[in-house]
Amino acid sequence: MATAPSPTTMGTYSSLISTNSFSTFLPNKSQLSLSGKSKHYVARRSSISCKATNNNNSNNQNEQQEESSRLLGKLDRRNILIGLGGLYGATTLDRKPFAFADPIAPPDLTTCKPAEITPGGSETVPCCPPVTTKIKTFKPDLSIPLRTRPAAHQVTDEYLAKFKKAQAAMRALPDDDPRSMVQQAKVHCAYCNGAYPQVGFTDNDIQVHFSWLFFPFHRMYLYFYERILGKLIDDPTFALPYWNWDSPVGFPIPDIYTDTSSPLYDQYRNADHQPPVLVDLSYGGKDDDVDEQTRIDENLAIMYRQMVSGAKTPDLFFGHAYRAGNLNTGKYPGTIENMPHNNIHIWVGDPSQTHQEDMGNFYSAGRDPLFYAHHCNVDRMWNIWKTLGGKRKDITDTDWLDAEFLFYDENAELVNCKVRDSLEPEKQLRYNYEPVSLPWLFTKPTARKTKNKTKAKVAATQLTSKFPATLVEVTTVEVARPKPRKRSKKEKVDEEELLIIKDIEFEGTEAVKFDVFINDDAESLSRRDKSEFAGSFVHVPQGKTTKAKTKTNLKLGITDLLEDLGAEDDSSVLVTLVPRVSNSPITIGGFKIEYSS
């Protein structure tokens, strides 16, 4: 019977730490049924017409039922928050007591349950933190020295010695210390694998992915992790490094994480992706046979698409609104979360492990010190995005601003913080990033053909109107455009044209990826640095508390893409989906094009 990797074997520096430091973080094995390898489908082709009527009545009913449940639960939730008294009274009674505000509340630690790795609880892992009734409210401390997070590939020997000392000290803390590596890894597990029920909506778990909570949650997570490391070496200026995976000089895993005798090392990584191998920002579970220059060109074009042309609005960049009472279904991730964030998780994780531990699964990702460098660069993208102009600004919805999380700080005290506490990191959290060049900012994708005005020919007999459809082969879909005309520059600025792939349903405990092309030749698809490549859907394995499949959406900004392809006057576009990896069937509910302000 397969077993998950033991996180106790963390390299040859074991003399610095307890050999059973992760013993409380091992999965409980009642069953193990997942196969060790992902299935890569052989590309075949079918075509679907999206001009036909989608069968979405059941989807609309589900959305209405969810909204009704959420509204009915508001007053009950308010009563529960008040009734928690000593645990939550001091931190939540300022939450607009009689207004129908719906920010996600901080979890009640007393209701935390084992996180699930496989559907239905056949395999669980303990992720719950120590419980305390004392909760502080986060307040920015302007006396903290401003810290600069360095690029990991160019840190000094002096910095590295300091970092290794801090990481070793964290590993050496007792398992039940909330500042220990064991407990810090559990933070991500609990918030991402269904360990916390929503307060007042106990049938719904808190999930910080696939929505607008992704960026602020991870920012505050990194902040407290960083502060703990600094306190352990008595250095308030200590700052985490970032993996500069958006630039060719930083594409390989930084060398500081590959020394097997270092506390920064993690043995559960993909052996084929060690330096000097360049990261594949479009990775889905299978290595492409491309040369180094092609990898560089594709990575930079992906970054341009995810940060510039495909991320012009807060909705696209941050992802779906996520409010109290919402189920974590039918949502969609922001551009950077979906790609390359998810791809890098899978690229680093060890495919020889049952659940692609460590980085390849959300429950175990926080065990790898490289996780924090990865997320520092994700966080850095948020900073950079807000400098690119246009509508690239933080969300102003109070349900986002007032969403709350709980973290233990450097003094082992539980702290309640809100999203609004994280918006100005230099001022509120006292850190910034070492500046480096941004080569992707000047790497706009180009069309494969000069003004690709000729769409692939699809015979009428190949079209079908049946939805949902199972994606097991290369599939081309004709999608009608509601405004088939060339728009003015002002109109494009005012409204972004969006392609929405609806109700993507799959087994959430497995890695999933498919690519999306527009007006391309389905028999000979473009490279990912071409305009025809619209993006990908990427999912990192995670646990959940039900056997129901995961359902989500993908939203892609395509205004610039249509302009590049000379397709602005077309009444429809041809969308080609290419399944790259999945053990189980992927179901697509439908497609539509709409406009967003």
From TrEMBL:
- Residues annotated for Cu cation A binding in this entry: H188, H209, H218
Q: Which GO terms describe its biological process?
A: pigment biosynthetic process
Q: Name one Pfam family in it.
A: PPO1_KFDV
Ordered alphabetically, the record's keywords are: Copper, Disulfide bond, Metal-binding, Oxidoreductase, Thioether bond, Thylakoid, Transit peptide
According to its record, what are the GO cellular component terms?
A: chloroplast thylakoid lumen
Give the sites of the cross-link named 2'-(S-cysteinyl)-histidine (Cys-His): C192-H209
User: Know the name of this protein?
Assistant: Tyrosinase copper-binding domain-containing protein
Q: Which species is the source of this protein?
A: Prunus armeniaca (Apricot)
